[in-house]
Amino acid sequence: MRLTTKGRYAVTAMLDLAIHSDRGPVSLAEISKRQEISLSYLEQLFSKLRKAGLVASVRGPGGGYQLGRGLDAIFVAQIVDAVNESIDATSCGGKGNCQQGEVCLTHHLWSDLSDQIHHFLSGISLAKLVSRHDVKSISQRQEINSLDDLDVIQSSRLA
Amino acid sequence: MRLTTKGRYAVTAMLDLAIHSDRGPVSLAEISKRQEISLSYLEQLFSKLRKAGLVASVRGPGGGYQLGRGLDAIFVAQIVDAVNESIDATSCGGKGNCQQGEVCLTHHLWSDLSDQIHHFLSGISLAKLVSRHDVKSISQRQEINSLDDLDVIQSSRLA
DNA sequence: TAATAACCCACTATTTTAGTCAACTAAATA
DNA sequence: TATTTAGTTGACTAAAATAGTGGGTTATTA
Questions:
Q1: Please, what CATH class does the domain formed by A5-85+127-158 belong to?
Q2: Is B75 helix (H, G, I), strand (E, B) or coil?
Q3: Residue of A136 and A154 predicted with greater confidence
Q4: Which terminus of chain B has fewer CB atoms gathered within 10 Å of its CB, N or C?
Q5: How far is the CA of B8 from the C1' of C14 (A)?
Q6: What residue spans define the domains of chain A?
Q7: What pLDDT is recorded for position A112?
Q8: Closest of B95, B92, B97 to residue B110, by C-alpha
Q9: Each residue of A67-77: pLDDT tens digit?
Q10: What pLDDT does residue B102 have?
Q11: What are the tens digits of pLDDT across the range A137-159?
């Protein structure tokens, strides 16, 4: 599980797509303008997102991209994974040169941690992000400042 | 919140330090050998960890590094933050060229998400990692599937 | 004082991220 | 059918982050 600006770009673009997908396919040119991400870089990202089945493409005039499935079936972890090729298995994989098993243990520990983060991000759907988008635009009127406030609002909405 | 191999190196090294700190200071040379991380790279990382107060150094023969505070007062998020200089505030910070406020909204959404991940990693202490080292991965037995489950488990452990 | 290990700095190599450019294919419409 | 739109692909480049080198200095202890 890697978490860099690349993943942020992808999540942002997917979110933009989700928000604007009510009126047919969304072209990368639109997303590029709105989110200020270079068109060619978006092409690279969406090529991977498409291969992962997260988006579907429509060619020709009026074409663009659509979500590959429902808002509530696309999760942040999937988006991040799609653009970040999976992390390499690291050093001691099958070499067996671990001293007293310690190297392998710490390695496993990290991968456990990585799994936990993955689990966590697997619990956040695009739908949840979009609904938070709504909440946020409301919050600007209501003067909500802390994350805790947001959580309260969000969980009450999801319930 | 960035999450790359750099942070993994730091967490792994801190964990190695934690495990071996019962017999006085641990030298970077030892950690370098055990974890197969270059000594000079470790020096760079520990320079930052020291400035963050996560470790304390002892110079001279027999010297090395010790944990800056108790196992249960050092959290993964702190380690990752210490070595990854904080993410830049990104594009639309004060430029005001956001169209209908949308660009800023997605930016805020991402930073919220980033906060959530941060919050999550703030709940995992070195003590927890070390005990997991002993117990060999508790999560695999508990079958954690949803975010809610994770939250419940985590908060009950902290209580 | 000699050995040890942290500390510090400038430098290099590699990889990843981000972006550019150009040619091509498929679909829609005039 | 010709043209336009927009995805598709690949090769290439620039910049940044990651990872590692090398050489020195300072503090401490034996």
A1: mainly alpha
A2: strand
A3: A136
A4: C
A5: 19
A6: 5-85+127-158, 88-124
A7: 78
A8: B92
A9: 999 999 999 99
A10: 60
A11: 544 433 333 323 333 333 322 22
- Contact check, Cβ <8 Å, B110/A11: yes
Average pLDDT over residues A36-63: 94
B156: contact with A, CB 8 A cutoff = no
- Select from A122, A137, A147 the Cβ nearest to the Cβ of B112: A147
| Nucleic acid strand D: bases within 7 A of protein CB | 4-11, 17-23, 26-30
> Which of B4, B35, B150 is the closest to A103 by Cβ?
B35
> Which candidate from A4, A106, A120 shows the least CB-CB separation from B147?
A120
Q: How large is the average pLDDT for residues A8-23?
A: 92
Distances (CA, A) of B53 to A19, B46, B67, B70, B74: 43, 10, 9, 12, 10
Backbone CA torsion sign across A50, A53, A59, A61? negative
Distance separating alpha carbons of residues B108 and A66, to the nearest angstrom: 23
| Interatomic separation, CA of residue B117 and C1' of nucleotide D19, rounded (Å) | 26
Quick check: B146 contacting A, CB < 8 Å? yes
| Measured CA B22 to C1' D29 distance, in angstroms | 21
Q: What is the pLDDT of residues B47-71, one digit of tens each?
A: 999 999 999 999 999 999 999 999 9
B36 — contact with chain A (CB < 8 Å)?
A: yes
- Rounded distance, CA B129 to CA A79, Å? 28
Bridge-based pairing of strands B55-58 and B64-67 is antiparallel
**CB distance B109–A8 less than 8 Å?**
no
Question: In this structure, what token pair is assigned to residue A16?
Answer: 């933009």
Distance B138 CA to D25 C1' (A): 47
pTM: 0.81
The Cα–Cα gap between B15 and B8 comes to: 10
Q: What is the pLDDT of residue B106?
A: 73
